[in-house]
C-alpha cells in the first residue's frame, strides 16, 4: 500500500511540474506578444507625430509673404524627417487658469450651500451659512496648496 501512495505522490508531483512549465511558457509568450503589440502601437504613434510635424512644417514654408498681402499657395515637397520648432507656451483658459485658492472657494461654496440646505430646516438660511463656511474652508485649503506649489517650484 505504501508503494502505491509513493507512486501516486510522485506522479502528482511530476504532472504538476509539467503543467507549471507549460504555464510559464504560455505566460512568457503572452508577455512577449504584449510587448510586441505595445512596440507596434508606439511605432504607429511616432509615425503619426512625424507626419503631423511634416504637415506643420510644410504649411509654414508654403505661407511665405509675397508682395505684402498675397500668399504663395504652392505646396512644398514633404521631407520625411523634418523637425518642427517647439510650440509657444499656451496661456491656460477658463477653469485651468484659476489659482487653487479661487477653485477651492468656488467648490467649497457650492458644496457648503448644498450641505447647508440639506442640514438646516430653513433651507435658505442653511444654504447661505453653508456657502460662507464652505467658501472660507475651500479658499483656505486652496491657499495651502498654492503655497506648497510655490515652495516646490523654488
The overall pLDDT, averaged over residues, is 77
Spatial sequence of strands, sheet with the most strands: 1-2
| Unreliable runs | 65-73
Number of strands: 2
Terminal CA distance reads 78 Å
The largest pleated sheet is described as:
2 strands, antiparallel
Total helical elements:
3
What key attributes describe this structure?
single chain, 3% strand, 154 residues, two-stranded antiparallel ribbon
Helices and strands, with pairings:
Elements (H helix, E strand, L loop, with lengths): L1 H61 L2 E2 L3 E2 L28 H20 L3 H31 L1
Antiparallel strand pairs: 1-2
Helix pairs in contact: 2-3
Describe what you observe in this structure.
This protein is 73% helix and 3% strand. It has 154 residues and is an all-alpha fold. A two-stranded antiparallel ribbon has the order 1-2. Strand 1 (65-66) and strand 2 (70-71) form a beta hairpin.
Amino acid at each position: 500500500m505504501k508503494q502505491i501512495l509513493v507512486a501516486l505522490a510522485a506522479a502528482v508531483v511530476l504532472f504538476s511540474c509539467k503543467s507549471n512549465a507549460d504555464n510559464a511558457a504560455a505566460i512568457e509568450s503572452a508577455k512577449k506578444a504584449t510587448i510586441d503589440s505595445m512596440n507596434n502601437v508606439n511605432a504607429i504613434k511616432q509615425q503619426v507625430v512625424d507626419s503631423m510635424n511634416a504637415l506643420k512644417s510644410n504649411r509654414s514654408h508654403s505661407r511665405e509673404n509675397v508682395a505684402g498681402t498675397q500668399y504663395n499657395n504652392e505646396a512644398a515637397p514633404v521631407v520625411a524627417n523634418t523637425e518642427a520648432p517647439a510650440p509657444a507656451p499656451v496661456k491656460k483658459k477658463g477653469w485651468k487658469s484659476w489659482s487653487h485658492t479661487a477653485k477651492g472657494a468656488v467648490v467649497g461654496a457650492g458644496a457648503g450651500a448644498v450641505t447647508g440646505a440639506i442640514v438646516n430646516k430653513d433651507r435658505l438660511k442653511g444654504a447661505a451659512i453653508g456657502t460662507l463656511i464652505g467658501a472660507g474652508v475651500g479658499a483656505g485649503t486652496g491657499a495651502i496648496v498654492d503655497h506648497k506649489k510655490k515652495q516646490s517650484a523654488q
